Amino acid sequence: MIIIGGTATNGIDENLSKLISIPLLKVEHKIFPDGESYIRIPQHITNQEILVVQSLYPPQDKHFVELLLILETLADMKNNKITAIVPYLAYSRQDRRFKDGEAISIKTILNAIARAGADVLIVIEPHKEEELSYFGKEVKIADPMPELAKEVSKKVEKPFVLAPDRGALERAKRLAEQLNAEYSYIEKERDRDTGEVRIKNLPELRLSGKDVIIVDDIISTGGTMIQATRAAYDHGARKVISVAVHSLFLGDAYEKLINSGVKEIVTTNTIPQDLSKVTIVDVSPAIARKI
């Protein structure tokens, strides 16, 4: 078995190699003057079980094409089994047609990864598990909640885990079980006339004096997390910690989160970060449990 480190790994390939004592080979990579990517596997590998590590954080399209180039090159070398480890799976949120004529982006992405030569896919905390069926082959979901919970436990005294909507409730439950804490979710409703989203239900008394941990799969613009933070403080929270598996922090999302009252953010290294109030947790142990 050998690990192939792609062009967008954020150190996960190196961490995984050390953790499971499997050799790592980095791809050769450069950008041509016209912006196209050059990929080369620096030694001939055949009849091997291969683990390819490539995250799809921004620039997503570039990293996706590079993943396909790596996979097909390894497939051409006639290897026994190729596992694509994609810590952050871009395009996951476009998992159905919201309007006629829209592309189901995640379907196209997963079909392409399968056709390029991946026999197995390992992902970290997908947006929706059911969308992974588009891959059409074996899929493994690596759960980083034990590692996230270990880090969060250092920062709270009276934890209460809160999901920002019903869709994140199962995720909140997993984290709460690790922390031996209560958990719930915010129920929201949309005004049909104005389009305004408002909170319909929140457990008032149970948040009084608690350290509230708001957990979601991804922070993008931060809007959902900010709304939940304000609601938690309105109902007596002592402090709020934000937990997300994947954190993009688009635009001024980080500043808005901190200004809303989030004391700290705990996230993983599926996407590179270098921000003062963000603690990074390595997902390599979660991946190792699936190999």
Structure write-up:
This protein is an alpha/beta fold and 291 residues long. The chain has two domains: 2-142, Rossmann fold (3-Layer(aba) Sandwich); 145-282, Rossmann fold. It has eight helices and 16 strands. Helix 2 links the parallel strand 5 and strand 6 (81-86). It is globular. The N and C termini lie close together (11 Å). The model has no long low-confidence stretch (mean pLDDT 92).
Can you give me a brief rundown of this structure?
With 291 residues, the protein is an alpha/beta fold. The chain is built from eight helices and 16 strands.
CATH class of the largest domain: Alpha Beta
Helix share, percent = 25-40%
CATH structural architecture of the largest domain: 3-Layer(aba) Sandwich
Strand content: 25-35%
Could you list the spans in which at least 5 consecutive residues all have pLDDT below 50? none
**Can you list the strand order of the major beta sheet?**
2-1-5-6-7-8
| Amino- and carboxy-terminal Cα gap | 11 Å
Largest sheet entry: 6 strands, parallel
